[in-house]
Amino acid sequence: MRLSNLLGERFKERAFEIESQNLMTRGGYMKQVGNGIYSLFTPAKRIQKKIERIIRDEMDNIDGQEVMFPVVMPASLWEMSGRFHSIGSELCRFKDRSGADLVLGMTHEEAAVHLAMNVAATYTKYPFMIYQIQTKFRDEPRARGGLIRVREFTMKDAYSFHTSQEDLEKYYERCHKAYERIFARVGLPEVISVLSDSGMMGGKVSHEFMLLTDIGEDTIVICPECGYKSNVEAADCIIKNVPDAELQPFQKVETFEHTTIEDISNFLKVPMQKTCKAVVYQRNEDDSYIIVFIRGDVELNEVKLRNHLKCLVHPAQNVELAGIVAGSIGPVGLKADCTVLFDKSLEGGTNYVCGANENGFHYTGFNIERDYGKPEYVDLGKAIEGGICPACGKKSITVSNGIEVGNIFQLGTKYTESMGMTYDDPNGERVHPIMGCYGIGVGRLIASICEEKHDDYGPIWPITVAPWQVHICALRSDNEEVKAAAETLYAELQSTGIEVLFDDRQVSAGFMFSDADLLGVPVRVVISPKTLQRGVFELSTRDKSVKEDIEIGSALDNISNLINKMTADINEVANSIK
Amino acid sequence: MRLSNLLGERFKERAFEIESQNLMTRGGYMKQVGNGIYSLFTPAKRIQKKIERIIRDEMDNIDGQEVMFPVVMPASLWEMSGRFHSIGSELCRFKDRSGADLVLGMTHEEAAVHLAMNVAATYTKYPFMIYQIQTKFRDEPRARGGLIRVREFTMKDAYSFHTSQEDLEKYYERCHKAYERIFARVGLPEVISVLSDSGMMGGKVSHEFMLLTDIGEDTIVICPECGYKSNVEAADCIIKNVPDAELQPFQKVETFEHTTIEDISNFLKVPMQKTCKAVVYQRNEDDSYIIVFIRGDVELNEVKLRNHLKCLVHPAQNVELAGIVAGSIGPVGLKADCTVLFDKSLEGGTNYVCGANENGFHYTGFNIERDYGKPEYVDLGKAIEGGICPACGKKSITVSNGIEVGNIFQLGTKYTESMGMTYDDPNGERVHPIMGCYGIGVGRLIASICEEKHDDYGPIWPITVAPWQVHICALRSDNEEVKAAAETLYAELQSTGIEVLFDDRQVSAGFMFSDADLLGVPVRVVISPKTLQRGVFELSTRDKSVKEDIEIGSALDNISNLINKMTADINEVANSIK
Question: Hey, of A32, A47, A48, A67, which one would you mutate to test binding to chain B, going by the most B CBs within 10 A of its CB?
Answer without folding.
Answer: A67
